[in-house]
Design a protein that fits this description.
With 114 residues, the chain is mainly β. The strands form 2 sheets. Strands 2-10-9-4-5-6 form a 6-stranded mixed β-sheet, with no helix packed on it. Strands 1-3-8-7 form a 4-stranded antiparallel β-sheet, with no helix packed on it.
Length: 114
């Protein structure tokens, strides 16, 4: 299993970023997928998840209306469009199969600061 997150960076409050998660080593289209984030000293927390066919999604309350999760099964890639970013969105962002807590990628850092 390999999960490669990308697309992070430094952005001003109110700005946007799109994260990507390239997956390999498992049948991507067979798994619900999730985005998580973690800040130093804190536990990794769920941000959003998406079902195999994209028919259903979930967002944690703090990102509802600002973030959009999507996936392209043909490319084995998941995305997280993040708009109206806030300083409290600053974190390392990770992707994984939903309810899997191993085989993590390296993450991608998102920093929201003026």
């Amino acid at each position: 299993v390999q999960l490669v997150e990308s697309g992070g960076g430094l952005v001003q409050p109110g700005g946007s970023l799109e994260l990507s998660c390239a997956a390999s080593g498992f049948p991507f289209s067979n798994y619900d997928m999730s985005w998580y984030r973690q800040t130093p000293g804190k536990e990794r927390k769920l941000v959003a998840w998406i079902t195999t066919s994209s028919s259903d999604t979930f967002y944690t309350d703090s990102v509802k209306g600002r973030f959009t999760i999507s996936r392209d099964n043909a490319k084995s890639t998941m995305y997280l469009q993040m708009n109206s970013l806030k300083p409290e969105d600053t974190a390392e962002y990770y992707c994984n199969r939903r309810n899997f807590w191993y085989d993590w990628g390296q993450g991608t850092q998102v920093t929201v600061s003026s």
